[in-house]
Amino acid sequence: MNPLALIDRYYPPGTLAHAVLLRHSTRVAARATAVAARLRCPVDLPFVEEAALLHDIGILYTDAPELGCSGTLPYLAHAYKGRELLESEGLARHALVCDRHIGVGLSAAEIAARHLPLPARDMFPVTLEEQIVTYADLFFSKNPQENDRERSFAEVRSSVERYGAEKLQILDAWYERFGP
């Protein structure tokens, strides 16, 4: 499976959306594979790299002109739309990473209570590989104004903290396991 060829199929090279997605995803993939390589337990390293490259493939369906995306859906929808796209490509395992990578994860109850534009189902990263990609994603924005700057853990922690103590506990546990 060639994740870059798949990205090129949905995002024409030379477009802003292609550049933004590729820049962000390659940064996330580099961090995720570095985290995976440090762990002293079995990790599917090729899968981590592929999933990190594809985790945001659903942004093309969103209304995010600053990212070169002219879809009609709210930005959060990129998670489940990415899942649908990758499932249609026969990549069910990769699709779950798309679906479950928002923040440190979302519960069905939280989605309903906050009226988020997502299916009302649990969307937590379950497997070690899903958690690694989700963790790595927290350190990078797709906003072109950030110029590929990697956020510090303190910045990531501050961002997650506003969603509650439970989310912060998940992040802190990941930091303990995956490192800075």
Automatic annotation (TrEMBL):
It comes from Desulfuromonas soudanensis. This is Phosphohydrolase. GO terms for molecular function: hydrolase activity. Keywords: Hydrolase. The keyword Metal-binding does not apply. PANTHER family: BIS(5'-NUCLEOSYL)-TETRAPHOSPHATASE, SYMMETRICAL (PTHR35795:SF1), SLR1885 PROTEIN (PTHR35795). It comes from the Bacteria. InterPro entries: Diverse_Catalytic_Enzymes, HD/PDEase_dom, HD_domain, HDIG_dom. The keyword Hydrolase applies. Pfam families: HD.
